[in-house]
Design goal:
With 78 residues, the chain is mostly helical. It contains 3 helices and no strands. The longest helix has 29 residues, at 49-77.
């Protein structure tokens, strides 16, 4: 008799549908942009003025493009 009551009580609990939802944190970032490689400061300082200027501007443009991609991903998550 106790076994039947126990089974009946368990089945009654399974018959109810849950009414509350549980929020689960999900990352909205699908793909993280790859950070560009930059040269060490000592290596840039060892170059002549023209080469150092070209490296600085090239790295600046790469980092700017990376920043814009990262910013777009962050804005999409809001």
């Amino acid at each position: 008799m106790r076994l039947i009551l126990c089974c009946a009580a368990m089945l009654v609990g399974c018959a109810n549908t849950p009414t509350a939802t549980i929020p689960v944190a999900v990352s909205c970032v699908k793909e993280v942009p790859v950070k560009p490689e930059t040269r060490p400061e000592a290596e840039i300082l060892a170059l002549d003025d023209y080469a150092a200027t070209m490296v600085a501007w090239t790295e600046r443009l790469l980092l700017k493009a990376y920043s814009e991609k990262a910013d777009a991903i962050i804005q999409a998550c809001r």
